[in-house]
From TrEMBL:
It comes from Treponema phagedenis. InterPro entries: TPR-like_helical_dom_sf, TPR_rpt. This is Tetratricopeptide repeat protein. Keywords: Membrane, TPR repeat, Transmembrane, Transmembrane helix. The chain crosses the membrane at residues 40-59, 149-171. It comes from the Bacteria. TPR repeats lie at residues 72-105.
């Protein structure tokens, strides 16, 4: 028997394919209007993707459905959202409610321990901006999925291969998102020769900088990186790469970008407006932005999605510009509804486009 859309979404969820969970479930909101599991998984997928507005709406509906029998995973999700809003009192209340339902709930204990040991605005702010808060997002079914995987591998006599497989999975997870403490950049510090001769007269360049300006941009890039402001750091790196800076400094600036993390809707900082990027494309190359608008000229295959974003036209009052969006994933897009795109600024033959990472287009019916 074919799996239901909800069961397929649960399988995608344990595989951490949250975009696919959203694409499977959102078109079926009306069909599952009274389903707690449906709204829980859809809300959690939105939370993991950083679509906080969607997470709030769907988790609130899940709470309404099961108000007489509180669910600890739902309560932990609400606690994490409260913590994102710096409302520690609400977060503590939710975690305590979760432990009342299930005194052994590990995530609730973990959340309470964090608040107990890090209850300052600075610590909570760093926790959120670094992406570490995602460790407090519930993942129902994931632990059981891993347990079944292990038993299956043992049963087929490939326990050794399992160790290799798990190593790849966890390395991929760490390399694509949360790093916690930022990297030690002492190896990228400028040496005396680089500081004394930071310029080069060879080649073509967009920006003509002075000695002091090159050094200042390089140090600013490092400072922004340590403050989890990768977009601002990228701008300074680009200023150096497209300038008359020396090849040695350009190499070190380029190396710095290898430590940048990929943001979500919930963690992106310093997103630049279209008008600013469009007037100085090279300066904002490889920066992450969130732009709103309407989609047109939609082309979709099993694994890719592309469309033109009418930036600013989500209100249908002002069109700022048209930007091609290219995604290496496939999700349904409704041309009649506003859409948000999280993407990386790219250039092809001088034309600005975004390499899409996530999109959000609510299909929830009006209440």
């Amino acid at each position: 028997m074919a799996l239901s859309v909800l069961e397929r979404a649960k399988k995608k969820f344990v595989q951490k394919k949250y975009n696919e969970v959203i694409s499977l479930l959102e078109p079926c909101v009306l069909d599952y209007h009274e389903s707690f599991s449906f709204h829980l998984y859809l809300g959690l997928a939105c939370l993991h993707e950083g679509v906080i507005a969607g997470a709030l709406a769907y988790l609130d509906r899940a709470k309404q459905i099961k108000i007489a029998h509180p669910d600890p995973d739902l309560l932990c999700a609400q606690a994490a959202i409260a913590l994102r809003r710096r409302d520690t009192n609400k977060a503590v209340e939710c975690y305590l409610d979760a432990l009342e339902v299930d005194p052994k709930h590990l995530l609730a204990k973990k959340g309470l321990d964090f608040i107990k040991n890090n209850n300052t605005p600075e610590a909570i702010g760093d926790f959120i901006q670094s992406g570490e808060i995602k460790k407090l997002y519930p993942q129902p079914g994931v632990r059981e999925h891993h347990r079944k995987l292990i038993f299956s591998c043992v049963g087929t006599g490939i326990l050794c291969a399992l160790g290799i497989s798990l190593g790849v999975v966890f390395f991929h997870s760490n390399s694509s998102g949360i790093r916690g403490q930022r990297a030690d950049l002492s190896a990228l510090a400028l040496v005396a020769d680089e500081e004394s001769a930071p310029l080069s007269g060879e080649g073509d360049f967009l920006y003509t900088l002075t000695n002091k300006e090159v050094i200042a941009s390089y140090k600013a890039a490092q400072k922004y990186f340590q403050s989890f402001k990768d977009n601002l750091a990228q701008v300074e790196v680009n200023r150096i790469l497209y300038s008359n800076a020396s090849p040695a400094i350009k190499r070190k600036a380029k190396t710095l970008t290898e430590y940048f993390t990929v943001p979500g809707f919930d963690t992106i900082k310093d997103s630049f407006p279209y008008s600013e990027v469009n007037t100085n494309k090279e300066l904002y190359l490889d920066c992450w932005v969130v732009w709103k608008g309407m989609a047109t000229n939609i082309k979709q295959s099993e694994q890719t999605l592309s469309f033109n974003l009418l930036v600013g036209y989500d209100t249908r009052t002002e069109l700022e510009g048209v930007v091609p969006i290219v995604c290496n994933f496939s999700l349904p897009v409704d041309a009649g509804k506003p859409i948000q795109v999280l993407g990386k600024v790219q250039l092809r033959n001088g034309i600005l486009y975004l390499r899409g990472k996530s999109i959000f287009q609510s299909q929830q019916p009006a209440q």
